[in-house]
Amino acid sequence: MQIWLGVDLGTSALKATVINQDGLVLARTSAGYETHRPNENWVEQDPRDWLAALSKVLTELDIDLAEITGVGIVGQTPTLVVTDLLGNPLRPAMTWQDTRSQKEADLFAVEIPDVAKDFGLSLPWAPSGILPKVRWLKEHEPKILQKDSRLLQAKDFLLFHLTGQFSSDNWSSKGLIHATTLKPTQAWKSLGLPNELIPAIGKPWEVAGATSVGNKFLPAEIPVAIGWSDALAGMLALEVFSKPTAFVISGSSDIAGISCRKLSEGKHNLSTVPESCAPIPVIFGPTQSSGSAISWAADLFNSTPEELLSKSLESSNAHSEIFLPYLAGERAPIWRSDIRALFAGLSHQSKFGDIAHAVIFGVGFTARHIIDQAKSLSGELPSTVHLGGASHQSKLWRDIRSRILRSEVISFSESDSSSIGAAILAASAASGVAPEVLALKFSGEKLSFTATTENQNIANIEYTKYLEWVERAIH
User: Fold this and answer.
1) pLDDT given for residue 343 in this prediction
2) Is the entire prediction scored with pTM above 0.85?
3) What residue ranges of the chain have pLDDT lower than 70?
4) What is the number of other CB atoms lying within 10 angstroms of the CB of residue 26?
5) Which fold has domain 3-231?
6) How far is 133 from 124, CA to CA, in rounded Å?
7) Which residues are in the Carbohydrate kinase FGGY N-terminal domain (predicted)?
């Protein structure tokens, strides 16, 4: 019996899932770590905390580690880790939530406006990206960007400490290299830094190397896949790469979009995953705050996320209250780090249930905003939306998503789609079977739901109001 370990190094916790060759989950566990905000717009983590979390989950997994036949690691991106040649971090990791490099992103936008030509994929310039962060480091901490340094993503850091290999994939390293040619981009060259800082690039489902004899975590000689971003691994587990599919993956933020047969040309505000980076292309976007916005509102009103969810559906009428969940700016499709959240349409008649409704549906509207744009760009009109993330185990959330998206929604029984996707990469690397084929076997049971036409129409009225307030907020 072959078993594969999938590791997801997420924003707030490291999750590990073990599956067997029949796609059954044998064990799972997780361990959290701290996020530090030492200055305004700075969001950092200590990579050594990730190693401690990995050690903890491997100790707690109820399996014999010697039986593992393959490992896949995915993680938060773009989170920049700078190490020396021994894999020691030279500074705290700058997470994807870190927006200190807004000025650098703005400079790049002027200097290299045609990102698609330079990168081989569409990607808005934003401070969350790798290159603006590197440019900030060159200005403020130039001594750490030497020939003997390496620029890694979070999952690449764990990969090195398992295998001793500096490897990454072309999607996670976007901007440093062209997605198709794998050559350094013009944007990278403009920084005048040594090319040696860029790790070796391969496919996410290829073997990066085997666990080394001296590693502190797993037995030696286990093949380890190069790995992917947690978002794309989640898409893999939701069968997004198996055929054109709309999807929403929920966590601290939402990842929403559509896989398609062909990418559209022209400028837009979403990210594209070309065929050079995935089995089929994807047009998608990440929001900035989803679950984190709901947790914030629950704390603010001395409530719980579950209570907000149930209260949000108490009234069957269209609500005038609107919430834009831009608590830390917004990524797709707005890409504004300076924009902030707001409540609109409040009155003396507004009750707690109305506020709860505004928060929950406001978070849902951000995902629809992305999917609607992806539909217009891709020409794909899928009849269902695949849902990933723990929240979608709730029937209430499936109802809300179906109302907002005006579609049948399908929730996957395995809530942690990213770690399942990581395990699929491990199985693909070890067996040579295409990951999108394995995904059909390992995706687990599915639950479908379709809201009533009346409820879909009511949500659509509110969505129109939401878009009106978005326009007011960004202008």
Assistant:
1) 97
2) yes
3) 266
4) 16
5) Nucleotidyltransferase; domain 5 (3.30.420)
6) 14
7) 3-236
